[in-house]
Request: fold
Amino acid sequence: MPAKKSKKGPTKGSGGKGKRSLEGKSGTLPAKERHWYQGKQRARAANRPAQPGGQPGPRNERRGEGADLLIGRNPVVEALRAGMPATRLFLSNSLDPDDRVNEAAKLAGSQGVDIVEVNRTDLDRRCESNGLPDATHQGIVLQVRPYQYWAPEGLLDAALEADTPPLVVMLDGVTDPHNLGAIARSAAAFNAHGIVIPERRSASVTMTAWKTSAGTLARLPVAQATNLTRTLESFKKAGLFVVGLDAEGDTQLPELELATGPLVVVVGSEGKGLSRLVREACDVVASIPIGGAESLNASVAAGVALYEVARRRGASA
Reply:
């Protein structure tokens, strides 16, 4: 995210729009009316019907595309540990086994996943036929069913049922799957309850995102929203505050008092920043103070913001 600048016009980074006043916006409840009461929110979540497989809320039926092959030792092991539905594990017959390969084979066998030994050329061809010609499979490939996204309300319920104040990351216009995977790693590391992405014009859970996340996406819920603004409003009604990241934010991140409460952190695209409607739905727009660098990558900015939230929550505990 770029540092604050006096020049007019858009800047690069997770920010990019000129400063907009947040006064006089409609639809934002006073803080005292949106304070998170654990018992109240748990009761609200308990009223939703349970879903098959023990999921805490409804999930979308829509499945992701392009995630049928998962490659690399860490992502494959993490997916199998998480019990992600898999159909076949391919192992190279010239593979030098290590602890991860052995664990992957053991987990696959215990879960009834077929284990097939093939030559490296066959693995290369399978990756290439799935649009992964330059993929580094490390001699291990897991065939999985397409990713099934959560519904936003299911993710919200899961966050409300947790023992810590809700923390959700929302991506507004982030189209690089590497960024999605990297943000997922930061979100899991700093105890976020999940990620919300739009259905259109956004990176999705593909093999690239899986590999970048080092398998984190096997256990971190990702929800798809038809409309980010409406989703934000529903989260606000449930008691969560919304903080957008923008270079021209009114509050610097170290001064963010909302960090200890129930929170949605919104990360904008590197080129355009937060979209107008999403920005207007934010309770606070925060900037990250930086020195010599002109901008921060969107995933780096998300990681910095999530660290600050975790630090503040730890200090107040």
In short: The two ends are 29 Å apart (CA to CA). The chain is about 35% helix and 20% strand.
